[in-house]
Design brief:
mainly alpha, 7 helices, transcription regulation
């Protein structure tokens, strides 16, 4: 990157040439799939490119790339876990109710957005929301489960609902 904050192509090319093979090999070992490893390796370098960082100043390039790739890997596994849970639930439905592939993709994307939203919530807020929405517990029951007052559960639910509205506005 020069003084104007622009990545110099030679620095990025050198980083890519020196470490792409290693990174892809590490990802292939983690995933057991060369295609997914290639995709995540490319995504890692795209993240490097998107960051405002002087590539030439990276002292430990493999550690730097490993950190980015590990984050992408966790996201990949989480996505697969959510997709599999959805497919398992879908398998329990009559075949006549099966959504189209496009609808399935939209539903999985929505589930991923909800998962990301829930991950941003504080622990007790998330638990209160899930106990209410998934388990159908009353606020009194949730208060007992979490060891807080019913008034606090109402505050937690208001926080969770505000996040849901924010997600809907962003969509």
């Amino acid at each position: 990157m020069n003084s104007e904050g622009i990545v110099r192509p030679n620095d990025l090319q050198r980083l890519y040439a020196d470490h792409h093979g290693w990174l892809q090999g590490w990802l292939r070992h983690q995933l057991g799939c060369a295609h997914n490893a290639a995709d995540l390796a490319q995504d890692t370098f795209l993240r490097v490119l998107a960051r405002d960082h002087d590539v030439a100043t990276i002292r430990e390039p493999r550690a730097y790339l490993h950190t980015i790739a590990k984050s992408l890997l966790v996201n990949h596994w989480r996505r697969r876990q959510i997709e599999q849970a959805y497919l398992d639930a879908l398998a329990l439905q009559p075949e006549t109710l099966a959504p189209s592939p496009e609808t399935r993709a939209l539903i999985v994307e929505t589930l991923l957005q909800v998962d990301a939203l829930l991950a941003r919530l504080p622990e007790k807020v998330r638990r209160a929301f899930l106990l209410s929405q998934l388990h159908g517990l009353t606020y009194v029951q949730i208060a007992g489960e979490l060891g807080v007052s019913e008034r606090m559960v109402k505050k937690y639910m208001a926080q969770a609902m505000l996040q849901c509205l924010t997600l809907m506005d962003d969509a």
